[in-house]
Design brief:
Distance between the termini: 54 Å
Oligomer: single chain
CATH class of the largest domain: Alpha Beta
Number of domains: 2
Number of strands: 7
Helix content: 40-55%
Shape: globular
Order of helices and strands: HHEHHEEHHHEHEHEHEH
CATH topology of the largest domain: Oxidized Rhodanese, domain 1
Length: about 210
Amino acid sequence: MFEQAINYKNELYKELARLGKGLSSDRRLEILDLLTQAPKTVEAIANEVGTSVANTSRHLQILKDSRLVKTERNGNHIIYSLSSPQISELIHLLISIGGHELSDMKSIQHKADTQDNVKTISLAQAKEEYQKSLVLDVRPTDEYATGHIQPSINIPLEVLKDKMTSLPKNKKIIVYCRGRLCANSNIATQILNSNGFNAVSLNSSYYDWNRVTK
């Protein structure tokens, strides 16, 4: 009887450890965090994380074997997405725990938030002010199309310098991107403030926005 119980738990923990294998790489964590924003092709993922398509494919295969991602064919393209909404919750929980418990993460974030021309705004304060401000989403267009703060406008970071003349200088601009692990909202805020705008960086994601009520 007891041997049966031991075998039962051992088999289950072995299966659960498959998730751990998928999570045991900083690059795979980055890929999972990226996929919380929108489904993507391997080429798009490789471009975003800065690795070769071959190396990205190997990481994606491990994530698929770990049941963390799934695939769907769209014409000639294979689209990768998270296996379930619970995976998104898991990734955001890991990020939250890291931000609270890992002192090096706190130091890295503090250094990024205190650079010249970077001003930040808390999620709670942004919830109070967003209706009288302009909310700017600097993510790629596919991520904006998948879901975004209402109301907001989308100008991806790579074209911000060319498009910023369309933005108002007499209104606060709340800038957001993919969340706490993404530096793009701070970079966009630097660009805007150095050009005479009143911009603040919201280092929270669309997921964070939806989870916190005003």
